[in-house]
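User:
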Amino acid sequence: MSKLAIISTMTDIRFDLIMTGNLASGVSREVAISKLATLFKRPPEQVGNLLSGKASRIRKNLSQAELQRYRDAFNKIGVITKALPSSTVTTTENVTAHSSVLSLCPNGTLVLSDDERQHPPVAAPDTDHISVANVGESLNDEHSAPPLPTPDIGHISLAPAGEDLLSSPTSGPVIKPQIAHLSLCGVGTPLLDSKPEIKYRPPKTDHLELQ
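Assistant: Predicted structure:
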């Protein structure tokens, strides 16, 4: 492609001017609304919605020179703008328009008709390895447990009826406690040491008053 063809292609690109709805740092919203009203020749209450933080398309299908002229004017006011190729915005709008006519079916809705659905054949189960047991036959295939060995009781004998089976304890000397140093107090004798008497002073409430 020649240099002239490249310049011609760039010149043919069209743009849409988008106002982001935001202001540059340090710009007063009231002042910006007043200047926008003068620029658009509209009342301030109508242009105030353009600075609500939502993007709005101000001009479409602009050339490079037209786009730059508009952006310079908005930059002087302090309004942040951006430019998008017109084809990009158009494609986005078409997608949004097509999406608005689509909706999701409720959960469980049959989307395909009976003719559209596939009906795979139901396979019959293989029962050749299965047989019916006789009535009363044990179905447990496990081997029976071996018999338990007989315990050895040769060292055990039976005592006569009424015999005491507990061996009598070995008798030992009785130990008498030493109580010669103990004495009984009279009735009413205090057993605890007397505590020092503590006198409590009532708090001063002269500086207090009820509200």
